[in-house]
User: Fold these one by one.
Assistant:
Number 1:
Amino acid sequence: MITAGQKIAIQRTEDPRLSRTDLDNIKFGRVFSDHMVMMDYVDGAWKEPAIVPFADLELSPAALVLHYGQSIFEGLKAYRSSNGEAVIFRPQANIARMNRSAVRMCMPEIPEDVFMDALTELVRLDRDWIPKGDDGALYIRPFLFASDEYIGVKPSDNYKFIIFTCPVRAYYKEAVRVRMEQQFSRAFPGGTGATKCAGNYAAALYPAKLAQDAGYHQLLWTDGIEHKYIEESGTMNIFFNIGGTLVTPATSGTILEGITRDSIVRIAHAEKIPIEERKVSVEEVVNALRDGTMREAFGAGTAATIAPIKSITVGEEEFALPPMEKQELANHVGRVLDDIRRGRVDDPFGWLVRVPV
Ligand SMILES: *Cc1c(COP(=O)(O)O)cnc(C)c1O
């Protein structure tokens, strides 16, 4: 655990909303804390960051981002630790990933120390927005977009970097029905599947909507060339328990390198839970579903942590998975992650950054 936080210009809100916000009844992603970080990139250089009241932006209709989608984001969480402190889970990993996304999208990287200091200061200022209770957290959304007033296709010269936060509670409450997607693609070799760029999500909406209209919660994406190998589940990484071994597709450029995924892999290694990162074919999954060796399947990501899957539909056939209570490894790794983040056990991997009061 390390402690961070530096001086940054703060303009406090004159209209704090916390006292009139019911943190016990919040819809994911619809309630925003009082402040945000803003930092501009102007003609080749970063300006000083500042913390300002959460408010609307003023943007030219010709802003490049609105036309060509040069935009990336991150998602991470701060938690209220059992001793009352605010802690942020693995922010260095999100900062590093955001900068990898930036490089791929031809955008300027954000200096790591500036990012970290602004982030911890924002969480410090709005720490009372972290909902109390075992399922409360502060979802943190950093993003970067092209702000040139210009409609020629080129990398922007000007960018805006913003971080705001949302109080959240448990995301999916029930196990989900997923459908194997073997027509549309989320990503392809050489594309942007490994980045958190806005366009990836826009392109996934239509196939996801078709599945939702047919009664499914989520898609199970397959590779963009043959549709023979499993990649991800919706906007989460995917894990299977096949005969007692945790199996997850190896990342290779088309799969987003999830920090939850990486954390589960590390926990499994540390606890000697058999784990394999490798190609996982649709055929292997169907066979394991048929012969009963498929014991569990779950999505993994920051928003929900673990999203147990109750059935997988391949073509016309729906295969049921054991009920949530029986998904032992999903429940176990979910609990270990939660215990670490909420300070109920020590932090053996050094994943928490403490936010100074
Ligand atoms: C963000 C994201 C994930 C999960 O990453 P985490 O770092 O665990 O939140 C997985 N897949 C996609 C497509 C994502 O955008």
Number 2:
Amino acid sequence: MKHSDLLSIARDYGCPVYVYDAHKIESQYKRLTTAFSEVTSLKLLYAVKALSNLSVLKFLKRLGAGLDTVSIQEVNLGLHAGFDPRSIIFTPNGVSFGEIETVAGKGVQINIDNLSILEQFGNKHPEVPVCIRVNPHVMAGGNTNISVGHIDSKFGISIHQIPHILRIVKNTGMRINGVHMHTGSDILDVGVFLYASNILFETAMHFKDLEFIDFGSGFKVPYKEGDIETDIEEFGERLTTRFKTFCDEYGREITLAFEPGKFLVSEAGYFLTKVNAIKQTTSTVFAQVDSGFNHFIRPMFYGSQHQIINLSNPDGRERFYTVVGYICETDTFANNRKIKEIKDNDILAFKNAGAYCFTMASNYNSRLRPAEVLWYNGESHLIRERESFEDLVRNQIEVDFD
Ligand SMILES: *Cc1c(COP(=O)(O)O)cnc(C)c1O
């Protein structure tokens, strides 16, 4: 997308606004399928929690994706967007048994990550095939917020508990049709991923009725200059070779699945804000924008560094700014960042705003959540209206004290 396109969207729809470039989603989707083009049966299950707008889901459906979901509401969004229930996997953690049963009743693939739930489910519904999520105990990145494969993680059934799984399967007569792992959002290199995949291949050999093996996600995309990025092409080549060997040993071909979220939508997204004021203190120049961590929490929550472009002054000279929001709470988006000179009312674009941005937005400070716009075929499409005051009071019931 050109910067002039972003500027006209800011003008037409107002700020703050989320913009998603459909063509970037498509090119990322094709990069992944191309990297695995030698695999006979490949399935990409888009992780809905990254960005769950119905139009984005429909666009991914058109590309051929299935869905990875973590709540019954995400399942219902997927069904509403027209997905076949059989192309949806449900990978919950800590949800009620009733929710799992209801989702299974819709014909969605169930993925279980808890021995006691597995046993209950197998006893009650031995005819419904399930996938199991294992924890391969691989540390994904340095940040414990996003490493979910390690020993204390609440996710997955430990690979050391495979004998328990096998006993439950035998006693209940249930069928395991898939094995799954998802080791976290920021695996740093292909080597670590391949190491973890070997553990999943070994696990898979214990189950004779598999239809698929699902490697979850963990593909890294660059946020700031110099960031490493998962080398998808190298990864595709190396895992394809390993997968083919596995299929030979297993005795037949099965489906290879991934659940990319961030990889597909992160770089497609831009968050556009307007500068309300420049505030010079004794030590810092603040640029205060018309948003806050209520709309865009990643910098505060994860320490993510999103690149910021001053769309209004692309040829200006660079100065240092601390970019902050307008809510009554520390909401720093960037500290002492070099940005083209900023004036009041300039439009700033935050990059990598497609994944885990709008879906984490809230109404804190009673602010309204932003609009969302999809850029497709050279045109902007409003795909979610900006909230209104009515949305804030909609479900409230006022007590009459008179
Ligand atoms: C969040 C999640 C994903 C997507 O992770 P990304 O880092 O966004 O690609 C995939 N699978 C499961 C089970 C998840 O919870």
Number 3:
Amino acid sequence: MNKRSQRLLALDKKHLWHPFTPMREWAAHDQLIIERGGGSYLYDTDGNKYLDGVSSLWVTLHGHRQKEIDQAIRAQLDKVAHSTLLGLANVPALELAAELIKLAPPGLSRVFYSDDGSTAVEIALKIAFQYWQQTKLPTSNLKLQNKSKITNFKSKTKFVTFVNAYHGDTIGSVSVGGIDLFHKIYRPLLFKSLKVKMGDAAALENVLKKRHREIAAVIMEPLVQAAAGMLMAPRGFLKKARQLCTRYDVLLICDEVATGFGRTGRMFACEHEGITPDLICVAKGLTGGYLPVAATLATEKIYRAFLGRPEENRTFFHGHTFTGNPLGCAAALASLKLFKKERRLDNVRKNIKLLEKELPKFRALEQVLEIRRCGAMVGIELRPDGKPGLGHRVILEARRRGAILRPLGEVIVLMPPLSITQAELKKLLNITYQSIETTTALIR
Ligand SMILES: *Cc1c(COP(=O)(O)O)cnc(C)c1O
């Protein structure tokens, strides 16, 4: 490690507090400091080169230092870096909203911006809650409402969520989360939600049937619970959830923060089952992984419940300072253009084919318990070996071999940039294979 790296590492140990990181362990070891990137690679301050196997935490789509996105941000810098959406509009935010609506599942028509996945989820929850507070007459399902003699919907205040759900780290998002390791300690701070097992259609129907008068919305990660360790929902469950929500007059929120923008092989995971949620949350890949911009998309029906004379207070009183940031929106517009120009989804499909062919080989490794995949999102679950941190030991080995990975417990995640070449993806798979093999061979 060179002198400069040592100096920087000292600053890290002195001042930085890293997310999701046991800091005592962290401080006891030397850490990588990333200096620059290019394509599918990251480079540390000693000039070492690593394949970015998790898209810098699931965000990078077209690679690092992508020419068109770099240029779009520079061009926007020559105009204005930031202007607020409170009381004003700006050019990239408007153009991006129109593009998002074009790409999103049909029926979504309004874009509410924020900064991160967590904020996009908070916004969806608050909109869903407020929607029912301001909706007086029975809406879509007259028969159901009349039978239960509902005249207003003010009692619809609860959310149905799934075991192992992850929707972000702010208090509202944690309230609808279901990963005990992350969420349990905050329980006294949280609002209660109704938990159902992912994929259990009968349980979902049961809770909706019995308690729809209390339920504002169901929130789910479509097809795959990513942060839980790439857990797959059974095929058809998303569609079933949509049908049940419609039948029982409950809103459906789809959190596509991880699955959105091509990760599953389609632009959005919802497309695989041909459904439109009432609200959809997008973030991670929205700017191609460049800047923090997120959005919550809503249907016109929901939007209209917020219209009225100012003194009626139907307004959605919510907004983050950097909402609709022009630099971020310009990056997002450039990223969306690249999907067309580079036929990005074609490349994803090619990569999916390669994964289909290569991943079964991992079964030869004794320590591999299960391989799960949705499109180009991969989780390789390892059999615990009795010593703590097997996943972590494997990714450290991968680092020595030239790839950056980040595990979820004992699940090794692969989610490389959509633009990764076949050769690079093969290399990533080889490094992963060898890293699991060597790490587990050492302890036998
Ligand atoms: C990452 C993630 C979030 C949280 O996004 P942040 O940008 O980290 O706040 C929410 N939902 C899902 C499904 C995610 O994967």
